[in-house]
Specification:
By secondary structure, this protein is of the alpha/beta class. It has helices at 25-29, 36-52, 64-67, 72-75, 95-103, 116-129, 146-158, 166-174, 180-193, 196-208; strands at residues 16-21, 57-62, 83-86, 108-113, 133-137, 162-164. The model has no long low-confidence stretch (mean pLDDT 95).
Amino acid sequence: MTFRNGLDSLLRPRDSVLVLIDHQPYQLANLNSHDPQAVVNNTTALAKTAKVFGVPTILTSVIAARGGLIFKHVTDVFPGQEVIDRTFINTWEDKAVVDAVKATGRKQLIIAGLWTEICVAMPAIQAAGEGWDVTVITDASGGTSVEVHEVAIQRMIAAGINTMTWLALAAEWQRDWARVDTAGPLTQVMIDHVGGSGVAYMWEQQLLNTPVPAAG
């Protein structure tokens, strides 16, 4: 087994490309591995984070006329961007998607989608076998049950695929808070999507800007 370790194994914005797969109403309706609201939140946060770091993002759906359009929360992050609609269940068999990824010239392929056991696992396993450095964002993905989501993750790890959550990815892309160009915008994403931590940050800012009462 080749272990994924060392500084070079960490993800970098300049080498990353994100593919968001089938975040559609039909799939969400039978999402049982996660709270659906959490998956929408995490996927939106992932999309916004990619935009903060200038990471090319490919949006793709499957038979949108039947399964519904990609969540508005996601398409609003990339206004006017084409969504590649497929008939292939396996995204990596769709030439338009693969060509779009290849056109970025990047090899760190990051995937999230619905459902984990089908629309994430198949392209991840195929792309990894073709030499791509594949990472799946598990909390912006989900399956039809907890079991199938977990089994899909185990299957992908066995195939050499890296797994992460969206906030861990954001931290890995940022790497250093001295990178001020992205630190501010990323903080706003965290305020909007990290719940308690976002609220705590705003509270901290409130306290820092609240004068200490003068002694009586």
